[in-house]
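Readers of this paper often ask what the protein records in our data store actually look like. This encoding replaces a full spatial description with a residue-level series of whole-number codes. For reference, a complete record is included directly beneath this paragraph.
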Amino acid sequence: MPNKLIRLLTILSFTLVGVFIIDQNIKTLFVDGWRYYTDCIDLILVYNRGVAFSMFAFLEEWLKYIQVVLIGGVLAYIIYLKEVCYAFPAGLMLGGALSNVYDRFIHGGVVDMVYWHCGFDFAVFNFADVMIDVAVVWILILNFKPKLCKT
């Protein structure tokens, strides 16, 4: 295996596993009963059976299998690109995605806990969702500013 691919897979793997472990440990606190309430943000337990804003909840059991295929496709594409600059954001994205899919298999839905209700109500979300959002923005920047991706 070329050195570049080994670097990519190492960075991607460590990032993916790190996000997965952090997210699952946070979720365990809430599954075990921890809650916290404020005037703007509540930390509560919600099981999301859909994706963002509970969309596609009608797919029920099929949703987790569709997501596994999508995760596999993203992983294959990142490996195909062989661009090390994508390894860290891809690890963030895939770690968050795998953690959320893992929830679907274990809990029947994604464990969400952060509820913003200061000035307006927002969807309940979790650490994995934040990592996925950060990764998407990062990857978009890399795509629109190719000079940032020097290998």
Summary: Strands lie at 36-37, 41-48, 110-116. Residues 3-31 form the longest helix (29 residues). The first strand starts at residue 36 and ends at 37. The mean pLDDT is 93.
